[in-house]
Each structure stands twice: as structure tokens, then as C-alpha cells.
Specification:
The complex is a heterodimer. Chain A folds into 2 domains: 1-81 and 168-252, P-loop containing nucleotide triphosphate hydrolases (Rossmann fold, 3-Layer(aba) Sandwich); 91-167, no CATH class. Chain A is built from 9 helices and 11 strands. Chain A has helices at 44-52, 74-79, 97-106, 124-137, 152-164, 182-195, 208-214, 232-237, 239-251, and strands spanning 6-15, 18-24, 27-28, 33-37, 59-64, 67-68, 82-84, 170-174, 200-204, 217-222, 225-230. In chain A, the strands form 2 sheets. A 6-stranded mixed beta sheet of chain A has the order 7-8-9-4-10-11, with helices on both faces. In chain A, α6 (182-195) links the parallel β8 and β9 (200-204). In chain B, 72% of the residues lie in helices and 3% in strands. In chain B, α2 (35-60) packs parallel to α6 (164-186) and α2 crosses α11. Classes of the chains: A alpha/beta, B mainly alpha. At the A-B interface, α2 and α3 of A face α7, α8 and α9 of B.
Chain lengths: 252, 322
């Protein structure tokens, strides 16, 4: 197997008495979808926040394509090739979809913060890439809609589009299908499949059917620890996992 | 579309008439022997610079700072200290005051911007009060009693800040240039990013924007402009007391800004104009002018909760990014 693109080692995070992330080591290979599953409170979101830099780990290392990320601030991790989506769509609700995309595209230009020239409402320099992103996630017909007024599923798609603007090597998806209807879910899962042809993905998802269909590898997180890690089939058969996690779902 | 372009033509006309009036004001007040009003307009312009810089910070950047008057004081006291040391060139003093205030803003901003919301308000308030107490303790510049400029500042060409019209035109030119620069800034890539940080800081970070740098640069710029405003103010009054830095002054600016409209281009200016002219008008009627002023302000805020500028038709203003 090829060298891992992304790797965490000994990642640890404590909130007072709670050990939210306990010595977590995961790795992701190029173009692989690595799913993280686990019951509520298992520390999945904490782990995503540690990787993206929105939380600071107590110890451990994070490495992407040979670059140590753990000492970089979140915005520099983005430059290094890491991008993320949020459990609750994190978009600019008060402006149009297109303006959302412009902001995302602008961040990846040579001079994202120049004050010398006026940025026009429809800026040709940003438009091409913005439209490309809209098409990629299927929002090309909603460009003028106010982001905050989009249906839930479309807001999730926009969240993904914003994350794609930086051309990430690794994309973190934090429950992309949460709150979605079957149709929206179906569309999102196609999108994720398509994205995996050009980047590695860490997928956190409660929808087990989607996880086992999409993932190349599954890690089970319980009480902040990686309980098991392996192919979807082997995880499905794992007695311990069934007892601790999958079993509880079935009986619920 | 026709009504839109008609409105923008109207706004250009209003702008030209206002500009003509402001430029010609010294002749008009001279003719009517109403020098006091030139003084009032000049003070309004000076405070409008500070209010507009605060609007950039609070209205567009979402950084509610309660120590902004402190930077005005830094500007004013820089002029006081340098004139005390024997310097008298207005241009040089105004420039230096701006740079020194920028430096103070860089230091205070680097500390205060580590925090958010209420903590940020309290830290900026504390820093402003710190500057106030430094002013009070400076016996060499008159402590509480304040400092009188020994002479008006030299503006070259045989003019000084004591020449009412010349200094007025200088302030007017500076104010217009600053307003234009701020309007340009908020529509630039930087300004759009700044407004987006106010909307959603977490996403901006996740998009790869250096959010802290954006905030700090804005804080420094706002501090520098407030400092220039303070330097103009001491030249305008020929006098400064530590009172200009007191937190109640900072709070006044916030109140003016809310009155004018946070995050509206002319919010700061409109707030200052309405506030000062109301105060002036009521003062002439009654010595108990605080009462009616308070009532009128409450009424305005009830009628226009988002500030007076929100009442202006949208084609004459701009608010949202993009």
C-alpha cells in the first residue's frame, strides 16, 4: 500500500475530567474515504476540530503530505491542503450563493486582501472559478438566492463548495447528511463519491448505510479511543464493535 | 432601473450641493458674521473622522471597542508633547500624531483582539481608561487642568490653524479624503473579507483567511484615524484635557454611531451631525438641554432602530458585502 497522505499520532485532548480524544492515531491514503463512526459523545467532532485547528491538542502530531500541521494556525492548515465542512452548515447567510463562493475563491487568489482595487459585485476574476464550484456541487441554478434562505440540503452543498475552493488534498466532512431527506442524502453521497476521485476524505456520518457504501476504511471511535479500524466488511463483522456500537443502534 | 438611476442622479446632485455649501461655508459665515457656525461645522467634521473610523471597526468589522476616544487622546497629546518640545509645523504634527496613534492601536489591538465580545469591550475600555489616567498624571501637560497650545500650529504659506477658514478647509479636505478612502476600503477585497469576518469568523478561518491579521489591521487603521481626529481637535480648541480620553467619550461615539446607523457608509457622519446640532440647538433654548436631547434620541432609536441611515433609500447607500 502506498504511503499515507495524512496521519495523526498520539492525539490527545482533555476537557477537565473528560478525555475527549485519547491517543488517536488514524491515517488516510490518497483518494481514500476514511469514515469515523461512533456513538454520540465518542469524540468525533472533537477530533475533526483538532485536525482542522479549531481546537488545540494537548499532545500528538498531525501530518499532511509530509507537512506538520499541529503547530500551524487553522488558516495556514488550509493553505497546506486541509479543508473542512461543518456539522451545522457554516455559510454567509445574509448574502447570495455567488457572493459566498466569491469569498471562498478570493481566499485562494494571489492577493486575497488587497485594498487597492474595488471588488465588483460580479467580479470577472472570481466568477469563473465560482461558477465551476457551483456546478461541482449542483448549485448552479441557485446562484442569486440568499444563502440563508436555501433549503437545508442546498446549504449543506454550499458548505461543501466553500470547502472545495482551496483545492484541498484532504477534506473533512462532519456529518454531511445530517438532517437530510432521502433524495438530498442520495445526491450528497454521489457528490462525496465523485470528490473522492480527486482528494482524500475523512467522513463522519451517522447514516450507517451511507458509511458502509461510501467508505474504503472505517474507524470506530468510542470514549475518545479508536476501538477498531478496517474495511467496512471487517468492521461490520467485528464482534466488539457490534457489542459496543452497532448492536446498540439495532436495539434502539 | 429608471427610478434607480434617477435616484443615483439625485444623490450626485445632493452631494454636489452639499460639497459646494461646505467649501463655500467660510465665505457665507463671514458674510453673515456667524463665525460660530464655522467653528461648529469644523468640530463636527473632526468628530466625524473619529466616528467614521469607529464605524469601520464596529459597523463593518464587528469589533465593539469602547476605548476609541483613547486614541483621540493619544493624537492630541502627541501634538501637545511635540509643541511643548518646540515643534510647531502643523503638517508634521498631524502626521506624527497619526503614526503614534497607529502604534498605540497596534499594541492595544494585539492584546485586546485575543478576546471577543464582552471581554473585548472590557479590555478596550480598560486600555482607554489607562490612557486617560496617564493623561491625568502628566503634570507637565497640566494633569486634570489640561494643556494650552502656546500658539496656533503653522500650516505653511503664512497660514496657521488660527486662521479659521484655512484650517477649516484643511479639516474639510482631510475628512473628505478619509471618507472616500474608507468607502473605497469597504468595497475592496479587504473590506469584503472584513465584513465577512463579522458575519462568520469560523468559516473565514476555514476558508484560509488570516482573520486575526484582518482584525488587527483594521484596528490599527481605525486607531490612527482617531488619532488624527484628536490632533485636529487640539488645534481646533487650542486646548486639550484628559477628559477627551474618558470612557464616557468612547461611549458617546458608540451612541452617535448607533444613532447614525452602524455599518452604513455615512452612519458615523450622520450620527455626529445630528447629535452635535441637536445639542447646539437645544442648548440655545434651555440650560436643561440634556432632558429633551435624551428624549429625542430615544424617539429616533425607536423610529429607526438600525439608525437614521437605514431610512435612506437603499440605492443611496450600501450595506451588505457584495
Amino acid at each position: 500500500m502506498a504511503e499515507a497522505l495524512f496521519r495523526t499520532q498520539g492525539l490527545q485532548k482533555r476537557f477537565n475530567a473528560l478525555l475527549a480524544t485519547d491517543n488517536v492515531g488514524i491515517d488516510v491514503h490518497p483518494k481514500e474515504i476514511h469514515a469515523l463512526i461512533g456513538p454520540n459523545g465518542a469524540g468525533k467532532s472533537t477530533l475533526v476540530n483538532l485536525i482542522s485547528g479549531h481546537l488545540v491538542p494537548d499532545s500528538g502530531t498531525i501530518e499532511l503530505a509530509g507537512v506538520r500541521l499541529d503547530r500551524l494556525p487553522p488558516h495556514e492548515r488550509v493553505k497546506a491542503g486541509l479543508s473542512r465542512c461543518f456539522q451545522v452548515s457554516s455559510i454567509f447567510r445574509g448574502v447570495s450563493v455567488l457572493q459566498n463562493l466569491y469569498l471562498a475563491v478570493q481566499a485562494n487568489t494571489d492577493r486575497p486582501l488587497t485594498a487597492w482595487e474595488r471588488r465588483k459585485v460580479r467580479d470577472a476574476k472570481l466568477a469563473g472559478r465560482a461558477h465551476e464550484l457551483a456546478e461541482r456541487v449542483g448549485l448552479e441554478r441557485n446562484l442569486t438566492a440568499l444563502a440563508g434562505e436555501l433549503p437545508h440540503g442546498a446549504q449543506r452543498q454550499l458548505d461543501v463548495a466553500l470547502a472545495l475552493a482551496s483545492n484541498p488534498k484532504l477534506l473533512l466532512l462532519d456529518e454531511p447528511m445530517a438532517g437530510m431527506g432521502p433524495d438530498e442524502s442520495e445526491r450528497m453521497s454521489h457528490l462525496i463519491e465523485e470528490l473522492a476521485s480527486s482528494m482524500a476524505i475523512v467522513l463522519i456520518e451517522h447514516d450507517m448505510e451511507a458509511v458502509f457504501r461510501l467508505a474504503d476504511r472505517v474507524s470506530v471511535l468510542v470514549n475518545g479511543k479508536v476501538l477498531a479500524s478496517g474495511s467496512p466488511a471487517s468492521i461490520r463483522e467485528d464482534a466488539l464493535v457490534r457489542a459496543v456500537y452497532l448492536g446498540t443502534e439495532e436495539s434502539a | 432601473m429608471d427610478t434607480d438611476s434617477a435616484k443615483s442622479v439625485a444623490s450626485i446632485w445632493i452631494g454636489c450641493v452639499l460639497l459646494g455649501f461646505l467649501v463655500g461655508l467660510p465665505w457665507l459665515t463671514n458674510l453673515l458674521d456667524a463665525h460660530y457656525y464655522l467653528d461648529l461645522v469644523r468640530r463636527t467634521l473632526i468628530l466625524s473622522i473619529a466616528a467614521s473610523s469607529l464605524n469601520l471597526l464596529v459597523g463593518y468589522g464587528g469589533m465593539v471597542a469602547l476605548g476609541h476616544a483613547g486614541f483621540m487622546g493619544v493624537g492630541a497629546y502627541t501634538v501637545a508633547a511635540l509643541t511643548h518640545a518646540g515643534f510647531n509645523s502643523g503638517w508634521w504634527l498631524f502626521g506624527t500624531a497619526t503614526v503614534v496613534s497607529a502604534f498605540f492601536a497596534a499594541v492595544i489591538g494585539a492584546i485586546a483582539l485575543r478576546t471577543r465580545a464582552v471581554h473585548f469591550i472590557m479590555l478596550t475600555l480598560a486600555c482607554g481608561q489607562l490612557l486617560y489616567y496617564v493623561g491625568v498624571s502628566l503634570r507637565i501637560y497640566g494633569s486634570d487642568d489640561g494643556y494650552n497650545l502656546p500658539a496656533p500650529l503653522d500650516l505653511g504659506f503664512g497660514l496657521t490653524t488660527g486662521d479659521n477658514a484655512a484650517f477649516y478647509w484643511l479639516v474639510l479636505g482631510a475628512a473628505l479624503a478619509i471618507f472616500a478612502a474608507i468607502f473605497h476600503l469597504i468595497d475592496s477585497r479587504f473590506g469584503i473579507a472584513l465584513r465577512a469576518v463579522k458575519d462568520n469568523e469560523v468559516r473565514m478561518t476555514a476558508l484560509g483567511y488570516p482573520v486575526q491579521k484582518i482584525r488587527l489591521r483594521t484596528f490599527i487603521l481605525a486607531g490612527a484615524l482617531a488619532g488624527l481626529s484628536g490632533a485636529f481637535l487640539i488645534a481646533h480648541n487650542n486646548f486639550v484635557t484628559p477628559g477627551v480620553m474618558h470612557w464616557t467619550q468612547s461611549a458617546n461615539f458608540i451612541a452617535m454611531l448607533v444613532l447614525g446607523g452602524l455599518g452604513y457608509r455615512w452612519g458615523g457622519v450622520v450620527g455626529v451631525v445630528v447629535w452635535l446640532f441637536l445639542e447646539e440647538f437645544l442648548r440655545q433654548i434651555t440650560t436643561h438641554w440634556h432632558w429633551p436631547l435624551g428624549l429625542i434620541l430615544i424617539a429616533i432609536v425607536l423610529i429607526a432602530p438600525r439608525g437614521l441611515c437605514s431610512l435612506i433609500p437603499s440605492t443611496l447607500r450600501s450595506r451588505n458585502h457584495g
